[in-house]
Every structure is written in structure tokens, then in C-alpha cells.
Amino acid sequence: DRQTLVAVLQFLRRSNLRESEEILRREARLLGDDLGGNVATVASSSPAVAAVAAVPPGKGGARGGTAGSLPRAAGRHLCRDPRGLGGPCASCSLGGFGGSVVVEDQPDVSAVLSAYNQQGDPTLYEEYYSGLKHFIECSLDCHRAELSQLFYPLFVHMYLELVYNQHESEAKSFFERFHGDQECYYQDDLRVLSSLTKKEHMKGNETMLDFRTSKFVLRISRDSYQLLKRHLQEKQNNQIWNIVQEHLYIDIFDGMPRSKQQIDAMVGSLAGEAKREANKAKVFFGLLKEPEFDVPLDDEDEEGENEEGKPKKKKPKKDSVGSKSKKQDPNAPPQNRIPLPELKDSDKLDKVMNMKEAARRVRLGPECLPSICFYTFLNAYQGLTAVDITDDSSMIVGGFADSTVRVWSVTPKKLRSVKTAADLSLIDKESDDVLERIMDEKTASELKILYGHSGPVYGTSFSPDRNYLLSCSEDGTVRLWSLQTFTCLVGYKGHNYPVWDTQFSPYGYYFVSGGHDRVARLWATDHYQPLRIFAGHLADVTCTRFHPNSNYVATGSADRTIRLWDVLNGNCVRIFTGHKGPIHSLAFSPNGRFLATGATDGRVLLWDIGHGLMVGELKGHTDTVYALRFSRDGEILASGSMDNTVRLWDAVKAFEDLETDDFTTATGHINLPENSQDLLLGTYMTKSTPVVHLHFTRRNLLLAAGAYSSQ
């Protein structure tokens, strides 16, 4: 309709949007300076507006002003349609130039434009989507796999856009027609999505809010991207092109497109893949140098050890999987990069014990598998929710759903508390056995129950020196307990919601916690407030782990990603995507180079921390992997699952001959071995007991724990 067109052109001219005006003229073949005509008559003829909607906006500044453009407009400047229709104002829908527009009060033109905005035809959404789908399915095989990644984010955004603009029936039919085409690993998200059918529902839903505000990342080769861009521009399919530009971040790389297997291995998280930039920062993954002190030799050990007090047997082991060498590791952080606590005499004694135990350690491998000792919690009607075992394997702790924390002694030595102050004053402080005398024999028992939490206890962690115990709970607190008095010393309040996991640093003093509020916090035992807050996950932080050098913290989340954080400055230095369900277990290899992660998808993924790459995938479990642990020298990885099995994997073989060249790092062309069964060394069934925790003793005996379930 010529008059409507003239009105729009006049408006553009008045607003100094010359570029848009030119584009619209060219498209409408309105050359010359013909902007006369009576504008007033236009306002009443709103049915004619559909004609403007049909004028395809150009490829330049003028965006397609459809019903869906509110979120995009809102990103630039907040404004509303004067009639309260919930659409963006005229300047947003047309110009896309944002805040530079000054809208004068012209009821006639704005009436035209707001009607124009409403006409962004919701009935065409299905056509747009199926058009793109047809194009992708007919493209060459090499591009099809890459471009298929677009289906899911576009589907979600188009659906949300329809719901947001209150086209409920169109949204419903759009969902029903296309939800079956999405990859199986998005089923849980689609279930959430299907329940959002009204604009009001979207306000309270955090997941969807994140989806709208954070850009979904796709990694696509330049050739595939050019193909897509050309198709959308030829088809004038602005609705989809707008979503691609606004809500997706396309990480373009030069080189061959990736295959379906390579893409499937890496995608599946809530926000797509990680940008390649995210994994570029340098990470000091090496181990800190052990402090040197003399080890007194026992007679029986004399022949087994050399002058350094280091076991002879481990000599040839130096190069392979990170036995502690005296040389400074070139990849290690500077010794004083973060302040670590001084070693006390008791710590030195413990290190000596550790070395002696290590001298008797069994060298594991495919020919020599560890024995497994399983601790079953019987009659655990309180519901076992967390387990930890001390480094020297002398105590085991269980966190329960009835809010108690229970500590058992696993050795014949019973648990004793320190005597009362009155009794302590009578003790001769100079005597040799003063540490023995301060303990109260009357309190000796195999089990101590710690009361204090007011909700299920989801995480427990012993301090390396065995003097303290951490527990975190649904009540939002982390508690520090003394294992000398078996009382609570501190309650750390920082999380406002359930805290799912907590863990001490391998050097003590620091600890980390993660919870439902989507952040992980770093604490020191003597500070009430957290020292660092690690924010970035889009859903609950479900598990936390310190790197062996204590300079980094890994967190796993329900957003299906794993992040590595730098303790020094709080920055996120790695983002790993590839799991198809919430992450529930993390384990660093003893040499600090690799990370293993387990999730509800039953897969165990292996990551090279230095290069920021996935290097392995272990398939075998049929349910959530709740526990992962490397043997003391890193030859074997043990995994425990809700499928009532413990599996042992050959870690040496998994990590040898890795092709981590610069090309792979740059493009993410990872080549995982087809068959992880070659790496599986053994599967051990429990008697209907899900495996909640695994621990290798200092001599490489594997301890496992879980609660018997009678169903």
C-alpha cells in the first residue's frame, strides 16, 4: 500500500534514519523524492498495514520488525509500545539502531507502526523453521552435521518468542511439530520448555531466563557458516537471521568441518560448547615441590630404600605418571603464588609415614589390579547422602538425610575426645606421651554422631591433617567440626540455598563449597566470609574438587559443564562441555595434568587440562557416575556408579600417545578412540548397593562405600 509506505518513509526521514530509508525505497522500487501524500488518512486504514509487513526488509540496518523482536529491542533501549501491547516501540522494530532515535509524538504514524509490529506473522514461524530444516537436511554431508547444531537453540528461541508475545496456540503447534527432531540429550530441557505455555510462566523460570540472556555457543567451520548466511539472506529469512545474530555466538574456525561424532562428543550443555577463547589461558597444572626433610630409616626398610629416603622401586617410575621428583616441575605454579600453610611437626611426621607406606605400595596395572574393600552402610534408613575417608584410611564419615554426620573409626583404634579443661590442667605437659594423655579413655567409641545441621548433609570432607571435618547441608551452611572434641567450631554462612558439596584443599586451611545458588565459594578456615566467589555456571554447582597443587578449583554443574577456576584471581580458565547430564564426580590425576569427570549420562570423560581438550570417553556405566578416583600413582582410574558397579580403567593407556597438537586445540577436532572397552580392566558388581565414594589407600588398596538399598 503506497500511502502506508510513504508514511513509514516520512517517519524514517524525520528520525534521520537515511540509510534505512534508502534500503526501504530500493526494495519498494520507490525512487525519486516522492514523499508527498496525506499522512492523516493512513492511520485509519490499518488493514493495509499487512502490505508493509510483506515488504522484505533489506540486508542492512532495517530489521524485520516482527512480533518476536522485543527481546532484541530490549537489549538496546527499554521502551514499550504506547498502547501497552508489549511490543517494542517503532524505532526498535524498524531501525535496529537503538538509543539514537528520538520518537516524536505522532499518533498517526505510531499507530501504523505498532500495528505493523503486531503483524510479524506468528503463523510463519513453522514455515521459517521447516524451510531451514529442509535446507540443512539437503546440504552436503560435511556441512549437515555442523549446521544441525542450529536446530535446538533456534527451536527454543522461536518457541519462547511465540510464548512471550502471547501467541499460545501457534507456540503449542510449533512445539508439537518440531520437538521430536531435537537430539535425545536435550529431552530434559524440552520437558521444562513444554511446561512454559504462557508469558507469566517465563518470569519465574531461571533456566529459560539464562537461555535468553546468555548466548548459545556453536562451533562451526567457515565454509558451513558462509553456506548458512547465503541461504538465509537469499530467502530473506530475517526472523531466523535475527535470532542467529542476537542469541547465538557462532565460533567460526578455519579448516575442515567436524564430523557428527566429533560434534556429538562436545555438545549437550545448557549454553552450547565453550568458546575456544575460554580455554586459551595458561594453566599451571604441575605439582608444587615437596619440602625436603630427612626421613629416619627403620631397620626393616633399610634395604628397600636409598639414601634419600625414597623407595628404590619407584626409581624407573619417574617419567611416567607423576611420582614426586625433587626437580621443580616446569608446569608448576611459583611456590608462593598463593599463600599455603606452614608444615607443622605433626604434618612432617605424617609425610614420613606416607613415604614409608608408599615404599610398600603395590604397583598397579592391567596385570595387577587392586583388591577392593567395600564398606556397606546397612540399615541406613536415615538415607546416606555423602561419604569421605581420611587420607590415611583410618576414619570414614557419612552424611545423612536426617541431618546427622556420623564418624567411624575403621581401624581397631577407637575415637576419643580430649579431656575437659579441669582434667587437662593436671597433666604434666613435659612428658613424652602428652598427646596420648590428653585423650579421655572414657569417651572411646567406634562411632561419633555430630548434631548441628537442620537439613540433609550433602557433602563431607576430612582435613589432610585429620584434625577437622567439613560438612555442608541443605540448610545453606558449611560446618567445621573438630575431630579432637567432636564438636562444631564454625558455621560458615554464605550460600542462601542448599550446599551440594564441599572439599578441603590438599594442603588444608582452604576449602571450597558449591550449591544451588550456582556459585562456588572459596573459604579459609579462619575467615567467616568467603575469599573468592566463582560465578559463571548457569545451574547448580553439584561437585567441587581442588587441583593437587591447590592453585585451581574444578566445579561440575547441573548446566552440564565443568569449569576450572584460578584461586589466585577468581577467573574461569577452562570450560569443558560434552556431558549430557548434570556432573556428579570429578577427579584429578596425581600428576595434575588430567581431569576425569562423571555425570548422570553414565559416561566418564577425560580432559587434558593444559590444552583444554577432551582426550577420552569411557563408556560402560548405565547410570549416574557418583565416584571417581585415580590410584596413587595414576595407573588406574576407578569409577563407581548408581548401577551398583565399580569399574577399573587403564589410565596409562588412556593418556598415552595423545595427539594434542596446536591444530586440534584450535579447532576442537578431537579423535576419541572408537572403543573404550579396550581400556576397561574389570567390572565388579555390588549386592544392590549404589557406589557413593571411592578411595585408594596409600598402598593402593581400593576402598568403596555405599548404602545397601533393598528395592
TrEMBL record:
Entry's family note: Belongs to the WD repeat TAF5 family.
Protein name, as recorded: Transcription initiation factor TFIID subunit 5
BP terms from Gene Ontology: transcription initiation at RNA polymerase II promoter
The TFIID subunit TAF5 NTD2 domain, residue ranges: 120-248
Coiled-coil parts of chain: none
Domain of life (superkingdom): Eukaryota
PROSITE patterns (UniProt xref): LISH, WD_REPEATS_1, WD_REPEATS_2, WD_REPEATS_REGION
Biased composition (Acidic residues): 295-306
GO cellular component: transcription factor TFIID complex
Region (Disordered): 295-347
Organism: Eolophus roseicapilla
This protein's record includes keyword Transcription: yes
Stated role: The TFIID basal transcription factor complex plays a major role in the initiation of RNA polymerase II (Pol II)-dependent transcription. TFIID recognizes and binds promoters with or without a TATA box via its subunit TBP, a TATA-box-binding protein, and promotes assembly of the pre-initiation complex (PIC). The TFIID complex consists of TBP and TBP-associated factors (TAFs), including TAF1, TAF2, TAF3, TAF4, TAF5, TAF6, TAF7, TAF8, TAF9, TAF10, TAF11, TAF12 and TAF13. The TFIID complex structure can be divided into 3 modules TFIID-A, TFIID-B, and TFIID-C.
Keyword Transcription regulation recorded: yes
GO molecular function, one term: RNA polymerase II general transcription initiation factor activity
SMART domains reported for this sequence: WD40
Residue ranges with Basic and acidic residues bias: 318-329
Keyword line: Nucleus, Repeat, Transcription, Transcription regulation, WD repeat
The gene coding this protein: Taf5
UniProt subunit comment: Homodimer. Component of the TFIID basal transcription factor complex, composed of TATA-box-binding protein TBP, and a number of TBP-associated factors (TAFs), including TAF1, TAF2, TAF3, TAF4, TAF5, TAF6, TAF7, TAF8, TAF9, TAF10, TAF11, TAF12 and TAF13. The TFIID complex structure can be divided into 3 modules TFIID-A, TFIID-B, and TFIID-C. TAF5 forms the TFIID-A module together with TAF3 and TBP, and in TFIID-B with TAF8. Component of the TFTC-HAT complex, at least composed of TAF5L, TAF6L, TADA3L, SUPT3H/SPT3, TAF2, TAF4, TAF5, GCN5L2/GCN5, TAF10 and TRRAP.
Record-linked InterPro entries: LisH, TFIID_NTD2, TFIID_NTD2_sf, WD40/YVTN_repeat-like_dom_sf, WD40_PAC1, WD40_repeat_CS, WD40_repeat_dom_sf, WD40_rpt
Pfam family membership, one: TFIID_NTD2
